[in-house]
Amino acid sequence: MPHKLRHNQKADVRRVRGLKSYLLASAVLALSVMPVQADVTILDVRTGLHPDKTRVVLEVNEVAFYDITYLDSPKEIIIDFRKTPSREAVKALTKKVAVIGLLDKITMEDNDGSARMRLKLRKAATVANNFSLNPDHGRQYRLVFDLKAVSSAEWSRQVTLTAPLTTAPVEPSPFPSLAPADMPEVIPVVLTTIGDETSSAPVVSQTPRRSQEVESYDEMVTGESNFTLSGYVEIEGRGFTQSSFNSQPKDWTVSFAVEPLLEYVSDTSSSQIIFRSFGRVDVNDSDRSHFDIRELKWTGTRDRWQMTVGIDTVFWGVTESSHLVDILNQDDNLEDIDQEDKLGQPMASLSYDSNYGVFSAYIMTYFRELRFPGQKGRFSPPLAVDYSQTEYQAGSGKWHTDWAVRWSHVIGNFDVGLYHFRGTNRDVDLVVGNDGAGNAVLIPHYNLIGQTGLDVQATFDDVLVKFEAIRRTGSGPVSGPEMDRDFWAMAGGIEYTFYGLGDGASDIGILAEYLYDDRGGQATTPFEDDLFMGMRWAANDIDSTEVLVGAIFDLDTSAKFVNVEGSRRIGDNWKVTLDARFFLGVPMTDPVYLQSRDDFVQIRLARYF
Known about the structure:
The protein is mainly beta. It is 5% helix and 47% strand. It has helices at residues 20-33, 87-95, 152-161, and strands spanning 42-50, 53-60, 66-71, 76-81, 103-111, 114-121, 125-133, 141-149, 189-193, 202-206, 226-240, 252-265, 271-282, 290-302, 305-312, 345-354, 357-364, 391-392, 402-411, 414-424, 429-434, 440-446, 448-460, 463-473, 487-498, 507-517, 529-538, 546-554, 560-570, 574-584, 600-608. The strands form 4 sheets. The protein has an 18-stranded antiparallel beta barrel. The radius of gyration is 26 Å and the shape is globular.
């Protein structure tokens, strides 16, 4: 099925360009009416390893200002603190800090009477998120820096994108609580440039964000014991432009959804518990009303090791039009046809982050079946599906133990992933049969497969090159030989982004990909010889306005699938999303012919908490 475009969040930092004049003027005004900031004392330094980042936390007695500099040789992140004691007062704090994750070494130096922290990196990484937390539960102010790994080209590009907007050094206001209410949530202000014999990377001068501006728990946790509840509630309306082949479904529907998220992180940040559930109620199709546990897992980290046990959602893949290599989780087919929503999968995983890449192993049991909308809903099969007769090639059925191993690594400009999976196929074969009353029904069959996958993304300035490929064995019908039909498939292309259009803050990305399946006309997917073209416009404004347009062209039949998406935040807690999807010129021989009259326009309004 077609897939939706995914927003490239790497471009978010460019939103600062349109804020230059406003921020500098605010800083000067605040300085003219406020007293000078008092010296700040660094009370403690600690680190934490999270599933997707390495966190550095500093406890201070007052809100502190700092400059962030990226150095190339060796790769280091330099954080210069203003109005802080010299190195002698804080150097002992870094001696007890655990050097974990992306960190290779942490040192403190004296920088003209203030403290300078040097974070030497094991691999290229950037400060993906930084903010402050106000005093609570006996703790002082905390400055939080989240480091995330990137390719070396992307690391360099992020530095370039934060290049100085002016060379006139202007001290920001020492009172961030006086910032206007409509101040954007990310405000890196480039003020000066520092150069030496090893690097001329720019300095990013920052006022840390306040805890009141933090939008999610992922931005709030600082390593202390902490339970946090977040999530959203949503109302969705769909209108279909054509009548269905089946006379039962209506041409409209309304549904309601909720997705709460409860998280806990231990005092040392070495343990994390996540519970994320999802539920939807559809007023017309009771079979689309469903509940699922997306995540219910414990994650523990120690040094370079990480273990996760429970129900989890794991995504692999880099291309926009199709995610061939994504194999561990079953699609939530009741949510949408784009295969972006996934059911939670019971599993245990163990990863080791070495100097030669991340090595991971996964063990899974209790297979999640693919579910379909009912006969009163759209995108339903021509006959009812009888799940009570589901058949498995594995003798242990849904309790068969699946496993996978994966290696991923950042090598220069390339992000590479390679894996092998062995277990029950997530794709289903529907075979016509009879139920107990003699009525014709569709019976699901799941066979065992082996699948090897490769995904590569290369970054060259404004161009991203993306590629995915799989080799699958044992993909024949469950009633036939295990190796009845082996095949390989691939998807690959480029994404080119035009930044700062018209001297503004908005960006446009142009995407082109080719999809191939060597089974040709016998393929169970419609993407056996197809071309994808897309465009993404990001306004990079405070309300995160985005428009995504894409089309997949079947080069054999001239069938087309067109997808349009737009989204915009409303205030601090609301988001509206508009989607439109159309099937054009689909012949009767195409696998998606039965859905070719399910063109629809959809609007969603979500309230986040």
